[in-house]
Amino acid sequence: MSIDPILVKSSFAAVEPHGTEVTAWFYQHLFEHHPDVRALFAEHLDDQQDRLFAALGALVEHLEDTDTLVGVLTDLGRRHASYGALPEHFPAVGVSLLATLRHFAGDAWSPQAEAAWAAVYGVVADTMGRALVAAGPAGADG
User: Fold this and answer.
1) What is the mean pLDDT of the chain?
2) What's residue 112's pLDDT?
3) What does the pLDDT read at residue 58?
4) How far apart are CA 14 and CA 117, in angstroms?
5) 60 Cβ partners below 8 Å, 6+ apart?
């Protein structure tokens, strides 16, 4: 399925009022299902939860502005290289993201919304992953 901006935006509008409760749930789900990635994160996640929530909002806001979106995702991919992230972490993050959105979206969630978000996350993972690999270990350009 292709990205459907209307479905992505309407489902995020249902999620957004929950604020950082969304990102707290996301990290709980991620670490519960993929404990191996816990070591990549600080012990306290308050700032990280705020950054993730802001990134999700920016993703939705710039969904139809390809140049801005690619720039933001490329920068995020480079930064994630310095955190020790690897391309093989992206599927786990995607599963937890979709589970989180499904949990909070309520009636705004549907199989079509899930497919649209999966398509969005495919672009996110691909763009960030390419930048992460290009940055190399510790985020060095290479």
Assistant:
1) 92
2) 96
3) 93
4) 14
5) 8, 9, 12
